[in-house]
Amino acid sequence: MSERRYQGHAGVGATVTGTALVAADDFSARYDLDRIKGVFSRPAHMLRGESYVGRILVLNTAKGGVATAWMLYEMAARKMAPAALVLNTANPIMAQGAAFAGMALIDRFDTDITAVIESGDEATVDPASGLVMVRPRDGGS
Amino acid sequence: MHLNDEEKAMLAGAMGEPVRWAVEQQITVGQFFDAEDFVGVSQVHLMADTESLGEAGVAFLERLSGVSETERRVRVPTVTDPRGIDFTAYKRLKQEDSWAALERRAIDAFTAMGILMTDTCINYQTILPPTFGEHVAFGDTGSTIYANSVCGARSNFEGGPAALAAALTGRVPRYGCHLDRGRRAGMRFTVSDRPRTLSDWGALGGVVGRHCGSYWTIPAIEGIEGAPTSDELKHFGAALASYGSVPLFHMTGVTPEAPDLPSVCDGTPPEPVVLDRGDVEAFYDSFASHDDKVDVVVFAAPQLSLIEMQTLAGLIEGRRVHAECALLVATSPEIKAACDRMGLTGTLEAAGAVVLEGVCFYQMYARETGIANGWTRLMSNSAKLVNIIAGYGYEPMLATMEQCVDAAVAGRAGS
Question: Is the residue at B322 inside a domain?
């Protein structure tokens, strides 16, 4: 099983490994999630109905408002949060929310990160180095 | 990130745990965005509704505020965004006592820290409008984009914990909109038809926002002749920030940093995206169709100004909200008091509307409140609200203020 490595900007939080959940779509905890059930609830979101709990969430950019900065902490306290956020582009709210929640976050890769990781891949997110290391799911290439 | 002696002392804990926590958070964010240093801010606008905070967030606030008064006091004037509960109205909305109890705990913590409970997202209209070049830490996307764009002040989106940190340290990491280079336009839009209503302005903001790639793409808008009103730019900016996560726009001949395009663009301006009436109409059409029952009509997001309240009261005076439809109106405590004094609240409530103060619909447990009241089909003239609320289980419709009032009276849209 070959490992692929993607370099982003140095991020926030501690190293974490988990299963990726990926979409070429954007992210706001307020707009997109049913935070009680732990699933994407926004009808137009590409991940509607998918559980994000404990997943390495790989999305395009931050959209929407400021509430995510509080919500990641609240979700983490209930153990209903993603394990990490991997974005093409974070905004201040994502960085502030990840810092407050102690959640791993990396952004600013030299490639479209949503196009090179697939849902189900195993990913290790190392914010200190800005590296995301990806191993395909069983049977993948 | 360069720290001066005062900031080093903050980080070492010399000014107490709240300040140490705050500056540590700020350094983490500053390093993430390659900030070289801090910049002082003169006022803070703090978003902290209890639906977002939850039990964990409120418990955090109680810990932070549970130290000596010297250590817990904010360093600069700090005002709050809308709260999660209107204590005078929550029972009418079938909201739960436990939510009100959580809200009271949060308010106690904020008050102990010296925070002013203004409970408004239109602080730039009602409390202390920022001035040109003033560095501030604003915590609502709508208040931030208005401060940056219309006032020429300087703020990034400072989410709740970040705004609280700014209040405790009196500064923010210097990146993004605090820097000249972070305020340059990266996209250009030419508007061929001036919006006619507040919902049109919101729709135009939504259209531009959908085009903008991220927080870091600042749009310049051309083609608006003559100054829009504060309420028009409020709806435009709130929608632009909501759909695009954009903290700043330039409008040539209108906003203070953009007397012309070269003033806000580096080098040759980008090719324009031309927007006409069809784009605005298509935006309306991207929401639920106006051909069925309406459960709830909401005027909020942003809270209404006194002028909007007067306009709305004039539209509904002498009419009656349908028995199977609710009409909710959210404004700030200051504007609500003025409306009480001027008879506007009485006019609205006599028609069956519920006038709410210090809250905004999407920040007040919208999912649970909708279930408790049987609300699914929602109509609003706020492009921002209809963007947010679908994720809470609603089918939103966007319409003009007049169409919204007609729907509330008829109990259905398109009648």
Answer: yes
CB B262 within 8 A of CB B293: no
User: What is residue B184's three-state secondary structure?
Assistant: coil
**Is residue B38 located within the same domain as residue B173?**
yes
| B86 and B152 assigned to the same domain | yes
Three-state DSSP at B381 gives coil
**Structure-derived torsion over alpha carbons of residues B313, B315, B317, B319, reported in degrees to the nearest 10:** -130
Q: Which of B119, B153, B178 delimits the end of a domain?
A: B178
The Cα of B226 is separated from the nearest Cα of chain A by a number of Å equal to 29
- B286-334 pLDDT, tens digit per residue, is 998 877 899 999 999 999 999 999 999 999 999 999 999 999 999 999 9
What phi and psi values does residue B348 have, to the nearest 5 degrees?
-65, -45
**In Å, how far from its chain's centre is CA A106?**
8
Range of the structural domain that residue B106 is part of? 5-178
CA distance B264 to A48: 39
B199 band by pLDDT with thresholds 50, 70 and 90:
very high
How long, in residues, is chain B?
Answer: 415
**Residue B87: inside a domain, yes or no?**
yes
Cβ separation of B162 and A69 shorter than 8 Å?
A: yes
Structure tokens, B148: 């940056």
Task: Write the residue in B159, B242, B390 that is nearest to A93 by C-beta.
Answer: B159
Do B237 and B296 fall into the same domain? no
Alpha carbon distance B366, B15 (integer Å): 39
User: ∠ CA(B375), CA(B403), CA(B388), 5° rounding?
Assistant: 45
Which among A67, A74, A99 has the least Cβ separation from residue B56? Answer: A74
User: Could you tell me the domains of chain A?
Assistant: 4-135 (3.50.30.10)
Chain A positions touching chain B (beta carbons under 8 Å):
9-12, 26, 30-34, 41-45, 61-71, 73-74, 76-78, 89-93, 95-97, 99-100, 105
C-alpha to C-alpha distance for A85 and A108, rounded to whole angstroms: 12
* CB–CB contact A89 B216 (8 Å): yes
Q: Do A70 and B161 touch (CB under 8 A)?
A: yes
Residue of chain B with shortest Cα separation from A42: B391
**Separation of alpha carbons B241 and B157, rounded Å:** 10
Verify that B19 and B167 share a domain, yes or no. yes
Residue B130 distance to chain A (closest CA, Å) = 20
Which are the contacts of B403, defined by CB distance < 8 A and separation ≥ 6? Answer: B290, B379, B381, B413
Q: What is the pLDDT of residues A56-81, one digit of tens each?
A: 999 999 987 899 999 999 999 999 99
Question: Bridge-partner residues for B40, per DSSP?
Answer: B171
Task: Give the rounded distance of the alpha carbon of B345 from its chain centre.
Answer: 23
Q: What φ, ψ does residue A53 adopt, rounded to 5°?
A: -65, 125
Tokens of residue A70, six digits: 């509080």
Q: How confident is the model over A85-101, as pLDDT tens digits? A: 999 999 999 999 999 99
Same structural domain, B239 and B292: no
Contacts of B364 in chain A (CB under 8 A): none
For residues B129 and B264, membership in a common domain is answered with: no
